[in-house]
Design goal:
By secondary structure, the protein is an alpha+beta fold. Helices cover 21% and strands 39% of the residues. Helix 2 crosses helix 3. It is globular, with a radius of gyration of 16 Å.
Length: 156
């Protein structure tokens, strides 16, 4: 496949003020630029997660987490910062205020880490898993510590 047939995510980091980073995913290629920018390339159908973080002051920050799927070349997807071309969005949550407040982004990051701890690759989970998990977490149907990972996987 030619490079223009992949979905690209450009990760940017400016110390203390912003970070756009790959949370999980299995890129087929990653290029590191001299400016510190990393460009990750994904094949159509690959699922990956991105976190955008902005710090406005010590007590004011904004984080957004998206779990997306790379699309074939001519499929229209949702345009998100740093992702080109657009992608299919399965989860999009945001959180204002400091980390550790146990809000949407924190909870999904905890779930991702729990999957990794259990030996599961979050990028291999089906899209329906992420949609169901986000709905359960956001609707407070199940606290994270009692989250039925296997039940959600079976339903997805």
């Amino acid at each position: 496949m030619r490079p223009d047939q992949f979905t690209r995510f450009s990760a940017t980091h400016i110390a203390g003020s912003m970070a756009d980073c790959l949370c999980f995913g299995d890129p087929i290629r990653c290029q590191l630029g001299r400016d510190g920018r990393a460009v990750h390339y994904f094949r159509p159908g690959q699922i990956f997660a991105v976190v955008w973080w902005r710090r406005y002051s010590p007590d004011r920050q904004h984080r957004t987490l998206a779990i997306v799927e790379a699309l074939p070349v001519n499929n229209a997807g949702r345009v998100l910062p740093g992702i080109h071309p657009g992608a299919a969005v399965h989860v999009l949550v945001r959180q204002c205020g400091p980390a550790g407040q146990d809000e949407a982004v924190d909870q999904l990051l905890d779930l991702i880490e729990d999957l990794k701890h259990r030996g599961r690759n979050p990028a291999e989970m089906p899209a329906a898993f992420w949609t169901d998990a986000a709905q359960e977490l956001l609707l407070c149907q199940a606290p994270l510590e009692s989250f039925d990972l296997e039940g959600v996987v079976c339903r997805a």
